[in-house]
Design goal:
The strands form two sheets. Strands 1-5-4-3 form a four-stranded mixed sheet. It has a two-stranded antiparallel ribbon with strand order 2-6. α5 links the parallel β3 and β4. The chain is of the alpha+beta class. It has eight helices and six strands. The protein has one domain.
Length: 198
């Protein structure tokens, strides 16, 4: 599993990936019709919120969507009927960074791969639906330093022996979705009431 940014052909072949990443993000933001929310946060927290918003809007970033909820993960793993899907699992608190720690962590100059969980207040969720969805989906993000973000996370030495991967064939996806009652509105609803279906 690699990030949407790392899947870009230009990213794989460019000589300076840091410049490529910043240039791509700046161009995407400049072309977007509505300005991103400018949130009053401490230190680098604003940079993290900017990346999260860009990810939600479809800009390729180094963030990889993750969830601590099994049904959310299954929903996305069975979303595309044209190819096989996969479920990945990793210990829930593996290399986790608290929101307070992120104020001192520059997302463009990471020391190592990490898992982050943004803190979203109810008022902030009303302002920006993407962050509200993140809360409902029990979302987190995996992010790696730019220097080796092109390496699938299951091949990173820091993750060795920690990641499990389950392949879901494209033929099985519809049956799984039907049995769990997934529909278009499912992923934007509160999921706790459905946990008993697992």
């Amino acid at each position: 599993m690699i990030s949407s940014l790392s899947r870009l052909t230009d990213f794989k072949t460019c000589p300076d990936r840091e410049i490529f990443e910043r240039d791509r993000i700046n161009k995407f933001e400049a072309a977007h019709t509505e300005p991103l929310h400018k949130l009053s946060r401490v230190g680098h927290q604003q940079d993290w919120y900017r990346l999260i918003q860009l990810q939600h809007l479809g800009c390729p970033t180094r963030l990889i969507d993750w969830s601590i909820d099994n049904l959310t993960a299954m929903y996305f793993a069975t979303n595309n009927f044209e190819k096989d899907g996969a479920l990945f699992s990793i210990p829930v608190f593996w290399n986790h960074r608290t929101w307070e720690e992120l104020q001192d962590t520059d997302p463009y100059n990471l020391p190592e791969p990490m898992m982050i969980t943004p803190v979203v207040s109810s008022s902030l969720g009303k302002e920006f639906p993407g962050l509200r969805n993140l809360t409902h989906q029990m979302g987190k993000f995996f992010v790696a330093p730019i220097s080796y973000s092109h390496i699938p996370i299951e091949q990173l030495s820091i993750c060795e022996g920690l990641i499990s991967k389950i392949i879901i064939t494209k033929e099985a996806k519809q049956d799984i979705r039907n049995s769990l009652g997934f529909d278009e509105a499912f992923i934007y609803s509160h999921l706790s009431s459905k946990l008993s279906n697992l």
